[in-house]
Write a structure and sequence with these properties.
alpha/beta; twelve-stranded mixed sheet; 16 helices; 40% helix; 17% strand; globular
Length: 565
């Protein structure tokens, strides 16, 4: 049936949506954005969905005019969401070059009161490090020929009392490659360069919308649901990012709703504001406010961003949680014949549900190929990403339809497969690999042999439980699904976050299994050093956290087998 449904994707319908989304500059919390929300709401209501628009307070930052003055010359630039506005009359200081502003680039350097010249786009990591180093400003050199709008807050969602001091304390700008190269050359020759940064940034609390659309499964609100979600707010017209995703969601919703009699569980579509200008403030607020229901009913999160871009021929580099890796591979191969590279989902893009324990897949799906001979930074979503060039002429109808079919296949199977396609064997294999890599050094200070053994026992228990999936009747399948969701609640938080189920880690890059970081840190210390002794304290707690998650997941398997009928 899925192949027949895929053929029902209508390019004319998709492009009709795209023309609507191309009409508005959709800054978070603005009347123009509200028009896009109303359009989506009207469409979903006509498809039979039950809709609700929620207004909530969010800490939103909208960049304004900016310029840089050096030696009486005005240099064109942009400023960024959550950067500091300049002082009255401008923020002045000497410029110092710091490469990409990574930890090694600034370690041991006196940067207080300086303006940092940085290679690459404005990102939260650089803003965080520059602020902590006492810099007063940043001048980023764009990696290509365009100035890309960015949000530089390292806080996931709106700030709390505990996180407010992490906001950037620097004025942040981005300039062209040519202007950047000239400044870099002057500094390399030993010249003193003084700059005055002018930047307007409107930051504060404002009301922003979330649109929630539900269509229940056969048992109504008692059923689990698939969360299918994307942001609506944009930089400039944002026709690809994120009009393409919004159009794809509407078409998937239209087709799936026509065949809801085949569903085994429900679907919830969520459309966020605050993605671009609030660092995922909408999805974070929703996760916090609806924690209990999401923990109880949300089977998984299908994220969608920037579909249909011209020239986006690659779909194999998207991301999926390890337990969904094979499922994602099957979907991509079925529609395109491409082989999924198996990337895990990065810490970005409204992935606000890991602490709750909700597995996730996708996000930005279709990417540009790397140009032959290209070195360094590659903008995989097209040169127009986060620029005024993100307009309708950079949408490819055929690619938009292809991306929509991929999401349709994904959502349809998640709605109709008797047993959820969660492969926790692969998930635990990843954990065993991570533990094996650090075990030798930890043998004395904080041995993880028992953790490795518990991982193996859990893998065996899950394998035994899943052996009943193939011939499960409806009742058994539902029990299996509930067990898989309970296992998710234990394992996902430690694989994708530091393990706090009620909070949100910073909006900074993380490795796989962040909860293991204290163990990894200990493995890199010198035996019997003070650093090792301090690290043991954190490592033991991390080991306890992961061991508890494994035991809780194993108990789920044991309860299932004990009650097997």
């Amino acid at each position: 049936m899925i192949d027949r449904l895929a053929s029902e994707v209508r390019t004319v319908e998709l492009m009709s949506h795209m023309r609507e989304f191309a009409r508005w500059i959709k800054l978070s919390g603005t009347p123009e954005e509200e028009k896009a929300f109303r359009y989506i709401d009207k469409k979903l209501t006509s498809y039979g969905f039950r809709t609700q628009t929620i207004l909530h307070d969010a800490y939103i930052s909208l960049p304004g005019d900016a310029s840089i003055e050096i030696d009486g010359r005005i240099i064109a630039c942009i400023t960024h969401s959550h950067a500091r506005p300049s002082a009255q009359g401008g923020t002045n200081g000497d410029v110092i070059y710091v490469g990409e502003c990574g930890p090694a680039d600034i370690e041991g350097r006196d940067l207080k009161g300086r303006i940092l010249l940085i290679d690459g786009m404005a990102v939260p990591q650089a803003a965080y490090l520059a602020s902590r180093a006492g810099a007063i400003g940043q001048i980023h050199i764009t990696p290509d020929d365009y100035l890309h709008e960015m949000c530089v807050s390292p806080i996931w969602g709106s700030p709390s009392v505990e996180t407010l001091d992490r906001l950037p304390s620097t004025v942040i700008t981005t300039i062209s490659r040519a202007d950047g190269a000239e400044l870099r050359d002057r500094l390399s020759r030993g010249e003193r360069v003084s700059a005055t940064l002018h930047a307007q940034v409107d930051t504060g609390w404002r009301q922003t919308p979330i649109l929630v659309a539900d269509l229940d499964g056969p048992n109504g609100a008692a059923d689990p649901f698939v969360l299918f979600a994307a942001h609506v707010d944009t930089w400039h017209y944002g026709v690809m990012d994120n009009g393409g995703a919004n159009a794809t969601m509407l078409e998937v919703a239209r087709i799936c709703a026509q065949h809801s009699d085949s569903w085994r569980r429900g679907i919830r579509l969520c459309f966020w504001s605050g993605h671009s200008h609030g660092r995922y403030s909408g999805s974070t607020w929703y996760a916090d406010q609806n924690w209990a229901e999401l923990e109880r009913r949300c089977a998984l999160h299908v994220n969608i961003d920037s579909t249909g871009g011209r020239g986006a021929t690659i779909v194999s580099n998207t991301g999926a949680a390890p337990e969904l890796r094979q499922f994602a591979s099957d979907i991509i191969a079925a529609e395109t014949g491409q082989s999924f590279a198996g990337r895990r989902v990065g810490r970005q893009g409204d992935q606000s549900f890991w602490g709750i324990g909700v597995p996730t897949m996708f996000g930005s799906l279709s990417h540009q190929p790397r140009p032959e001979g290209h070195q360094g930074h590659h903008l995989h979503l097209g040169w127009w990403w986060h620029t005024p060039g993100d307009t309708l002429d950079n949408i490819d109808e055929a690619i938009l339809a292809r991306d929509t079919r991929i999401y349709l296949r994904t959502v349809w199977r998640l709605l109709t497969d008797p047993v959820l396609p969660f492969d926790y064997g692969t998930h635990l294999d990843d954990l065993a690999t991570e533990l094996g890599a650090i075990a030798p050094r930890l043998a004395e200070d904080c041995p993880v042999d028992a953790l490795i053994e518990e991982t193996a026992r859990l893998r065996e228990a899950i394998s035994t439980m899943m052996a009943h999936a193939a011939d499960a009747d409806a009742v058994q399948a539902e029990r299996l699904n509930r067990a898989l969701m309970a296992i998710s609640r234990s394992l996902v938080p430690v694989e994708s976050s530091t393990g706090d189920r009620f909070g949100h880690d910073p909006a900074l890059s993380q490795p796989a299994w962040p909860a293991l970081q204290p163990l990894r840190a200990l493995s890199k210390t010198q035996v019997n050093s003070d650093e090792a002794c301090f690290s043991v304290v954190s490592a033991v707690r991390a080991r306890n956290r992961v061991a508890y998650a494994l035991r809780e997941a194993k108990a789920v398997c044991e309860r299932f087998m004990a009650n097997k009928t």
